[in-house]
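pasting for the record
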Amino acid sequence: MQPCVQVELGCNCRVDAGVLLGYRPGRKIELQPVRIGNGACIRAGTVIYASVEIGSDFETGHNVVIREQTKLGHGCSVWNNSTIDYGCLIGDRVRIHCNVYVAQYTILEEEVFLAPGVTIANDPHPICTKCMQGPTIRRGARIGANATLMPHVIIGENALVGAGSVVTAHVPPRAVVVGSPARVVGSVDNLECPFGIVKPYQDGIDVRRRPEWEAVRPLPRPIQKPSL
Protein backbone atom coordinates (compact mmCIF):
# COMPACT_ATOMS: atom_id res chain seq x y z
CA MET A 1 0.00 0.00 0.00
CA GLN A 2 1.34 3.40 -0.98
CA PRO A 3 1.58 6.12 1.70
CA CYS A 4 -0.87 8.99 1.44
CA VAL A 5 1.81 11.53 2.42
CA GLN A 6 5.54 12.00 2.08
CA VAL A 7 7.62 9.84 4.43
CA GLU A 8 10.85 11.42 5.71
CA LEU A 9 13.25 8.89 7.25
CA GLY A 10 16.53 9.84 8.90
CA CYS A 11 19.85 8.07 8.41
CA ASN A 12 20.56 4.47 9.40
CA CYS A 13 16.94 3.42 9.75
CA ARG A 14 15.83 -0.19 9.51
CA VAL A 15 12.26 -0.71 8.29
CA ASP A 16 11.07 -4.32 7.96
CA ALA A 17 8.92 -5.66 5.18
CA GLY A 18 5.27 -5.44 6.16
CA VAL A 19 5.56 -1.98 7.75
CA LEU A 20 3.07 0.70 6.64
CA LEU A 21 4.25 4.31 6.93
CA GLY A 22 1.97 7.24 6.10
CA TYR A 23 -1.31 5.33 6.40
CA ARG A 24 -4.38 7.44 5.59
CA PRO A 25 -6.48 8.39 8.65
CA GLY A 26 -10.21 7.91 8.64
CA ARG A 27 -10.63 11.34 10.24
CA LYS A 28 -10.79 14.45 8.09
CA ILE A 29 -7.62 16.32 9.00
CA GLU A 30 -4.96 18.28 7.19
CA LEU A 31 -2.48 15.62 6.17
CA GLN A 32 1.17 16.18 7.05
CA PRO A 33 4.27 14.07 6.28
CA VAL A 34 5.53 11.30 8.50
CA ARG A 35 8.88 12.35 9.96
CA ILE A 36 11.11 9.82 11.71
CA GLY A 37 14.61 10.65 12.97
CA ASN A 38 17.91 8.83 12.64
CA GLY A 39 18.52 5.29 13.81
CA ALA A 40 14.96 3.96 13.87
CA CYS A 41 14.21 0.23 13.99
CA ILE A 42 10.62 -0.43 12.89
CA ARG A 43 9.58 -4.08 12.94
CA ALA A 44 7.13 -6.01 10.79
CA GLY A 45 3.43 -5.33 11.26
CA THR A 46 3.87 -1.74 12.46
CA VAL A 47 1.47 0.88 11.07
CA ILE A 48 2.30 4.59 11.44
CA TYR A 49 -0.36 6.97 10.20
CA ALA A 50 0.10 10.27 8.38
CA SER A 51 0.93 13.42 10.39
CA VAL A 52 3.19 11.68 12.91
CA GLU A 53 6.54 13.06 14.11
CA ILE A 54 9.08 10.80 15.82
CA GLY A 55 12.56 11.66 17.08
CA SER A 56 15.80 9.73 16.70
CA ASP A 57 16.58 6.20 17.97
CA PHE A 58 12.96 5.05 17.83
CA GLU A 59 12.24 1.32 18.12
CA THR A 60 9.12 -0.81 17.81
CA GLY A 61 8.20 -4.41 18.37
CA HIS A 62 5.76 -6.12 16.02
CA ASN A 63 2.20 -4.96 15.25
CA VAL A 64 2.51 -1.49 16.76
CA VAL A 65 -0.01 1.19 15.71
CA ILE A 66 0.70 4.91 16.01
CA ARG A 67 -2.19 7.11 14.99
CA GLU A 68 -2.19 10.53 13.35
CA GLN A 69 -1.27 13.87 14.99
CA THR A 70 0.94 12.16 17.56
CA LYS A 71 4.45 13.31 18.44
CA LEU A 72 7.17 11.20 20.06
CA GLY A 73 10.52 12.47 21.30
CA HIS A 74 13.96 10.88 21.02
CA GLY A 75 14.88 7.42 22.25
CA CYS A 76 11.34 6.05 22.56
CA SER A 77 10.37 2.39 22.30
CA VAL A 78 6.94 0.83 21.75
CA TRP A 79 6.70 -2.96 22.00
CA ASN A 80 4.50 -5.66 20.48
CA ASN A 81 0.78 -5.12 19.95
CA SER A 82 0.63 -1.66 21.52
CA THR A 83 -1.43 1.26 20.18
CA ILE A 84 -0.89 4.98 20.60
CA ASP A 85 -4.09 6.68 19.52
CA TYR A 86 -4.28 10.05 17.83
CA GLY A 87 -3.33 13.41 19.29
CA CYS A 88 -0.86 12.16 21.91
CA LEU A 89 2.30 13.94 23.05
CA ILE A 90 5.15 11.71 24.20
CA GLY A 91 8.48 12.93 25.54
CA ASP A 92 12.03 11.62 25.21
CA ARG A 93 13.07 8.13 26.35
CA VAL A 94 9.54 6.89 26.99
CA ARG A 95 9.23 3.09 27.10
CA ILE A 96 5.88 1.47 26.29
CA HIS A 97 5.79 -2.30 26.76
CA CYS A 98 3.56 -4.93 25.08
CA ASN A 99 -0.25 -4.86 24.79
CA VAL A 100 -0.60 -1.25 25.95
CA TYR A 101 -3.37 1.14 24.85
CA VAL A 102 -2.65 4.88 25.04
CA ALA A 103 -5.89 6.80 24.46
CA GLN A 104 -6.30 9.97 22.43
CA TYR A 105 -4.94 13.23 23.86
CA THR A 106 -2.71 11.60 26.46
CA ILE A 107 0.55 13.24 27.57
CA LEU A 108 3.54 11.13 28.59
CA GLU A 109 6.47 13.21 29.76
CA GLU A 110 10.14 12.23 29.55
CA GLU A 111 11.30 8.84 30.85
CA VAL A 112 7.84 7.47 31.61
CA PHE A 113 7.50 3.67 31.63
CA LEU A 114 4.28 1.76 30.89
CA ALA A 115 4.45 -1.94 31.79
CA PRO A 116 2.66 -4.68 29.80
CA GLY A 117 -1.11 -4.45 29.61
CA VAL A 118 -1.53 -0.84 30.78
CA THR A 119 -4.83 0.67 29.61
CA ILE A 120 -5.42 4.40 29.42
CA ALA A 121 -8.95 5.83 29.21
CA ASN A 122 -9.94 9.31 28.06
CA ASP A 123 -13.73 9.81 28.06
CA PRO A 124 -15.56 10.42 31.36
CA HIS A 125 -18.88 9.48 29.69
CA PRO A 126 -17.94 7.13 26.85
CA ILE A 127 -18.57 7.98 23.20
CA CYS A 128 -19.60 11.57 24.02
CA THR A 129 -16.09 12.89 23.19
CA LYS A 130 -16.86 16.52 24.12
CA CYS A 131 -14.47 16.47 27.09
CA MET A 132 -12.29 13.60 25.92
CA GLN A 133 -8.72 13.73 27.20
CA GLY A 134 -6.31 11.12 28.53
CA PRO A 135 -4.17 11.42 31.64
CA THR A 136 -0.98 13.41 32.01
CA ILE A 137 1.86 11.23 33.25
CA ARG A 138 4.71 13.33 34.58
CA ARG A 139 8.42 12.77 34.09
CA GLY A 140 9.86 9.50 35.36
CA ALA A 141 6.58 7.95 36.53
CA ARG A 142 6.29 4.14 36.34
CA ILE A 143 2.97 2.42 35.65
CA GLY A 144 2.76 -1.26 36.66
CA ALA A 145 1.40 -4.17 34.62
CA ASN A 146 -2.33 -4.19 33.81
CA ALA A 147 -3.00 -0.87 35.55
CA THR A 148 -5.87 1.28 34.27
CA LEU A 149 -5.63 5.08 34.26
CA MET A 150 -8.90 7.00 34.04
CA PRO A 151 -9.44 10.25 32.06
CA HIS A 152 -7.89 13.57 33.10
CA VAL A 153 -5.88 12.21 36.05
CA ILE A 154 -2.35 13.50 36.63
CA ILE A 155 0.32 11.01 37.70
CA GLY A 156 2.97 12.96 39.55
CA GLU A 157 6.67 13.04 38.74
CA ASN A 158 8.50 9.81 39.67
CA ALA A 159 5.33 8.23 41.08
CA LEU A 160 4.79 4.45 40.97
CA VAL A 161 1.42 2.85 40.17
CA GLY A 162 1.18 -0.76 41.35
CA ALA A 163 0.20 -3.63 39.06
CA GLY A 164 -3.53 -4.00 38.47
CA SER A 165 -4.42 -0.64 40.04
CA VAL A 166 -7.29 1.52 38.80
CA VAL A 167 -6.31 5.17 39.08
CA THR A 168 -9.32 7.49 39.41
CA ALA A 169 -7.69 10.52 41.07
CA HIS A 170 -4.46 12.51 40.85
CA VAL A 171 -1.34 10.81 42.18
CA PRO A 172 1.19 12.98 44.08
CA PRO A 173 4.84 13.09 43.01
CA ARG A 174 6.94 10.16 44.35
CA ALA A 175 3.83 8.42 45.70
CA VAL A 176 3.26 4.68 45.55
CA VAL A 177 -0.38 3.85 44.84
CA VAL A 178 -2.11 0.46 44.70
CA GLY A 179 -5.62 -0.97 44.52
CA SER A 180 -8.99 -0.22 42.95
CA PRO A 181 -9.50 2.63 43.35
CA ALA A 182 -5.78 3.30 43.76
CA ARG A 183 -4.74 4.76 47.11
CA VAL A 184 -1.44 6.13 48.37
CA VAL A 185 0.42 3.56 50.47
CA GLY A 186 3.81 5.22 50.75
CA SER A 187 6.68 6.96 49.02
CA VAL A 188 8.97 5.50 46.36
CA ASP A 189 11.94 6.51 48.52
CA ASN A 190 10.88 3.94 51.13
CA LEU A 191 10.84 1.00 48.74
CA GLU A 192 13.38 -1.77 49.29
CA CYS A 193 14.88 -4.32 46.93
CA PRO A 194 13.90 -7.84 48.12
CA PHE A 195 17.47 -9.00 47.37
CA GLY A 196 19.19 -6.01 48.95
CA ILE A 197 21.43 -5.32 45.95
CA VAL A 198 20.14 -1.85 45.01
CA LYS A 199 18.26 1.04 46.53
CA PRO A 200 15.22 1.22 44.22
CA TYR A 201 14.68 4.99 44.61
CA GLN A 202 16.77 7.82 46.01
CA ASP A 203 15.36 11.35 46.14
CA GLY A 204 12.59 10.15 43.83
CA ILE A 205 14.97 8.86 41.14
CA ASP A 206 14.87 5.15 40.36
CA VAL A 207 18.09 3.15 40.17
CA ARG A 208 17.95 2.80 36.38
CA ARG A 209 18.56 6.54 36.11
CA ARG A 210 21.38 6.71 38.67
CA PRO A 211 25.11 6.06 38.12
CA GLU A 212 25.21 2.95 40.32
CA TRP A 213 23.02 1.12 37.80
CA GLU A 214 26.16 0.42 35.75
CA ALA A 215 28.11 -0.80 38.78
CA VAL A 216 25.69 -3.42 40.15
CA ARG A 217 25.96 -6.89 38.63
CA PRO A 218 22.70 -8.75 37.96
CA LEU A 219 21.94 -11.84 40.02
CA PRO A 220 22.63 -15.18 38.32
CA ARG A 221 19.51 -16.85 36.99
CA PRO A 222 17.32 -18.65 37.85
CA ILE A 223 16.57 -16.28 40.74
CA GLN A 224 14.69 -17.66 43.75
CA LYS A 225 12.29 -15.23 45.38
CA PRO A 226 13.10 -14.68 49.08
CA SER A 227 10.73 -16.23 51.62
CA LEU A 228 8.42 -13.86 53.44
